[in-house]
């Protein structure tokens, strides 16, 4: 027996300590529900569990992302549903306007509604947003950023050319007296003019003449009538044999002769006059001389007709009535005798405020603009060659606005089609090569906004697990419901829907023909909207399956992670019971071991 070391007590103490730790750990697991509450509990299990937890949270967030995507698509589809309704109403208007039972005022009212509906389509597209993000206005393609240009507060400037206009295109045969009087006693002269241009076509006759008394031809520099052949061999003058009736008027057959001879001679002079050749033609129709403006030429939309009639007068054998026709005349027309040349659409961009210094110019790299659908983009060749899809403009040597503008001009030669670029100091002047009313120029800040906007949805817990939702530009221009030229109104009547500025031209329903054309265009617009809504529906259905799959994956991953990290309560309760019993036994044995040395005292007595 020993008293310095009570081995029984020490052994009981050690076992009691072990059982106490086991009991404490078991209670920790039972109270937290976790099998692994610290790295020491299961090193490998903790690592696996944490990776699974990251996946679970990623899957849950991806599911929420997909739900947000569905909400965005539903927002877009709801807006396009209204666009569809508007387009259907526009078609009704076109069908109604095509009916010739409508009066001019009726069609004017229909046109006003057409303008307003078109503006509303713009408003819907321009204001439909999800989380402040516009979703129906298209996007920027080719990676071309917008330049900080100010087009009166808009992202696009739209300009249009103009035809020269005359209030009255005057085609007339006018009476003049006293010419060639040294040859013909007291003659009268009729001279033919078109738009103020005297063709020199002249008739001279004697007051009391009968057969062969009307001589016609082209004046020479001295005012005399010549009968010289033209280069193609056609004689430019001659005599009309007529017979006056008893009262001094022309017979019907002679009136026809005058008309035919006049038309032929006028046409020969039109052919040799650069200002008129290709724009007009002259011909006779019965007693009428018709001068017609040709659509293929520079003058369009105006004809003139003159009637040759006999007149009861002792001094005149015949008379010609002049007719003034109202309306527009194309390029090269006149107003009150003054030539007004037709112009192409033109706009000026001032670069002085955005390219004042070298640093300002450097900041323009990757930015650009679109001119009539053709995009230019700035780059700096010191950083490498241009790799974009637009027309690259190297600005490495430009140090100020003038040099930048000149670089644009120099590097777009033979590349930018349909426009001419010139420099006016710090300003870039863009002019359409097409002149007249059909000349249209559109400059977009950045790339043309007719491209689709691509919305990336992160629908997975890891990288490269996304899908793209593409939504097109649903504004009126992208749908073909506004434009310029045939089929559209002559004056702007459409706004962007957010202000009162009218800068686009709606479909024209003021005539039966234009209304019929509008029906086809509207049908095409309906198809575009239908195609976009069909795509949105497909996206939405796909995303719903994405959500279902993500939720299922998250659930299964949670189950797997739970098996690793969570406590098996039944097993842990059993272990806790065992630890408690052993702890109590150790305490009892330790008490007995501590009482054993007392027996030694009995031996010492």
UniProtKB/TrEMBL annotation:
This is Flagellin. Belongs to the bacterial flagellin family. GO terms for cellular component: bacterial-type flagellum; extracellular region. Residues 100-127 form a coiled coil. It is found in: Secreted; Bacterial flagellum. It comes from Clostridium lentum. Keywords: Bacterial flagellum, Cell projection, Cilium, Coiled coil, Flagellum, Secreted. It holds the Pfam family Flagellin_C. Residues 519-604 form the Flagellin C-terminal domain. Flagellin is the subunit protein which polymerizes to form the filaments of bacterial flagella. Residues 3-138 form the Flagellin N-terminal domain. One of its GO terms (molecular function) is structural molecule activity.
């Amino acid at each position: 027996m020993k008293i310095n070391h009570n081995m029984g007590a020490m052994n009981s103490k050690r076992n009691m300590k072990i059982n106490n730790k086991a009991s404490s750990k078991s209670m920790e697991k039972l109270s937290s529900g976790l099998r692994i509450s610290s790295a020491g509990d299961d090193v490998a299990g903790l690592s696996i569990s944490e990776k699974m937890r990251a996946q679970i949270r990623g899957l849950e967030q991806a599911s929420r992302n997909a739900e947000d995507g569905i909400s965005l698509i539903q927002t877009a589809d709801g807006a396009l549903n209204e666009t569809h309704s508007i387009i259907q109403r526009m078609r009704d208007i076109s069908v109604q306007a095509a009916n010739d039972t409508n009066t001019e005022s009726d069609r004017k009212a229909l046109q006003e509604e057409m303008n307003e509906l078109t503006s509303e389509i713009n408003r819907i597209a321009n204001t439909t947003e999800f989380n402040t993000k516009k979703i129906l206005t298209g996007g920027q393609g080719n990676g071309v950023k917008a330049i900080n240009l100010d087009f009166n507060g808009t992202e696009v400037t739209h300009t249009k050319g103009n035809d020269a206009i005359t209030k009255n295109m005057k085609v007339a045969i006018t009476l003049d007296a006293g010419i060639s009087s040294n040859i013909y006693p007291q003659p009268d002269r009729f001279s033919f003019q078109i738009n103020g241009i005297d063709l020199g076509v002249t008739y001279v006759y004697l007051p009391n003449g009968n057969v062969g008394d009307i001589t016609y031809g082209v004046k020479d520099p001295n005012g005399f009538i010549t009968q010289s052949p033209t280069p193609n061999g056609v004689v430019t003058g001659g005599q009309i044999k007529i017979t006056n009736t008893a009262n001094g008027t022309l017979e019907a057959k002679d009136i026809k002769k005058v008309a035919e001879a006049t038309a032929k001679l006028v046409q020969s002079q039109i052919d040799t006059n650069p200002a008129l050749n290709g724009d007009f033609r002259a011909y006779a129709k019965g007693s009428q001389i018709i001068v017609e403006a040709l659509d293929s030429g520079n003058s369009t939309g105006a004809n003139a007709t003159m009637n040759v009639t006999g007149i009861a007068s002792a001094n005149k054998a015949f008379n010609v009535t002049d007719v003034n026709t109202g309306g527009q005349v194309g390029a090269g027309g006149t107003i009150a005798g003054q030539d007004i040349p037709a112009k192409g659409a033109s706009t000026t961009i001032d670069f002085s405020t955005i390219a004042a210094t070298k640093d300002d110019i450097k900041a323009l790299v990757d930015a650009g603009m679109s001119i009539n659908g053709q995009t230019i983009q700035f780059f700096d060749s010191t950083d490498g060659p241009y790799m974009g899809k637009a027309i690259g403009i190297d600005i490495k040597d430009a140090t100020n606005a003038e040099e930048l503008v000149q670089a644009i001009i120099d590097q777009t030669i033979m590349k930018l089609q349909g426009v001419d670029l010139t420099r006016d100091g710090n300003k870039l002047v863009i002019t359409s090569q097409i002149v007249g009313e059909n000349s249209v120029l559109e400059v977009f800040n950045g790339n043309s906004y007719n491209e689709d906007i691509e919305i990336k949805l992160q629908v997975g817990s890891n990288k490269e697990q996304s899908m793209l939702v593409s939504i097109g530009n649903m504004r009126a221009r992208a749908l073909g419901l506004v434009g310029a030229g045939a089929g559209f109104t002559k004056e702007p009547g459409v706004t962007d829907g957010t202000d009162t500025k009218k800068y686009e031209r709606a479909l024209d329903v003021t005539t039966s023909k234009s209304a019929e054309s509008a029906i086809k265009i509207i049908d095409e617009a309906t198809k575009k909207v239908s195609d976009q809504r069909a795509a949105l529906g497909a996206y939405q259905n796909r995303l719903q399956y994405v959500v279902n799959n993500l939720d299922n994956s998250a659930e299964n991953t949670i189950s797997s992670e739970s098996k690793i990290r969570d406590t098996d309560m039944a097993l842990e309760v059993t272990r806790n019971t065992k630890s408690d019993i052993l702890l109590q036994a150790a305490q009892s044995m330790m008490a007995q071991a501590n009482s054993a040395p007392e027996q030694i005292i009995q031996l010492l007595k």
